[in-house]
Amino acid sequence: MSNPKSFPQRVQFCAGNLAERGEDAISGLIDLTSQRLIRFATAITRNQHDGEDAVQAVLIKIGSKPTMLQQTDNPWAYLLKMTRNEALLIARQKKPWSSFGNLCDLLVQRRVDEVEREEIYRAIWTALRRLPTSQSEIVVLKIWEGMTFAEIADILSLSPSTAASRYRYAMAKLTTLLRAKVGDLDHV
Amino acid sequence: MYENDFDRERVGGIRDWEHEEFDQLDLEQWIKASGDYIQPGSEVRPRVIEAVRLRGERRRAWPPILRLAALMLFAMVPLSMVGHWVGRRVPQGVSAAEIQYRAQQRAASTGMTLDWALSGVVHEWRRPLNESSLPEINRERK
């Protein structure tokens, strides 16, 4: 555990620190996980501000009970589960967002070498928001978190085959949506 | 030109895309690349740290209050026992009317004045109490 490599191992290391040092170690966990948790929560809530609210609620709970995360078998999966529950709770309380194409809630970073890719990224985020939550969350966990269908199934309380089939449907829909977008880009 | 193989693959993906050779692998690579497009708001970190700190302070403030409450609860038991014991030692009440009546009876039967009869009645009423509650003093007096 002295030199953790994979992301889940690094989260486990942070959870150990948190249990040992108490709430003072929460900043390490925030720095490590907040970006990933926020993009996951944002994919569920379809709004970054709501996603951030969900992540804040989760991290505050974790910080208030520093040993809670260490007691779990897989702290990273546990954090994702907590974030999903909070995000779903917030999403249920909000009105469905009528404009999926509106990404003005997103706080983005524009690297100089990625300016030309920004339109594609925006198209991808817009397309993700057009998917049902049950599909978009699987895309996030599969592609951004690099999880297997078995791991995804554990977090979402599904069977691995259901997770795999939802992923296939999601990718088929995204392919259709993004091909059209690329066609638009070609005319610009 | 490219930072790594993945960047090279991504740009390769865009070329395929433009030539309508867009497949799922390319799409996955593009989605993966777009994951870092958004970043957390600057307020998230300080808000979480502040909220955790406040909760910690509140939690630490509770134990002294709880200890005091527990101490008071435990103190109630011996205090109530002492109160009960003292209550049994306190003289049973005699009404002023009864004292007055006894004094009148004594004055009538012995021929002494009412004030001396009253004094005698009060003295007799208090004597058994003194003997039972202050045995050491009574012994010295004897």
How can the largest sheet of chain A be summarized? none
Helix content of chain A: over 70%
Q: What is the CA-atom radius of gyration of chain B, in angstroms? A: 47 Å
Q: Stretches of chain B where pLDDT falls below 50 for ≥5 residues?
A: 1-21
Would you tell me the structural class of the helices and strands of chain A? mainly alpha
- Rg result of chain A: 18 Å
How would you sum up the global shape of chain A? globular
What is the average of the pLDDT values of chain A? 85
Count of individual helical segments of chain B? 6
Count every beta strand of chain A, where a strand is a DSSP E run of 2 or more residues: 0
What is the number of helical segments of chain A per DSSP (H or I, 4+ residues)? 8
Strand residues, percent of chain B: under 5%
Structural category of chain B is mainly alpha
- In N-to-C order, the SSE pattern of chain B is HHHHHH
The oligomeric state of the chains shown is heterodimer
Helix content of chain B: over 70%
Q: Can you count the beta strands of chain B?
A: 0
Task: Name the chain pair with the biggest interface and residue counts per chain.
Answer: A-B, 42 and 32 residues
Mean pLDDT of chain B: 76
Distance between the termini of chain B: 117 Å
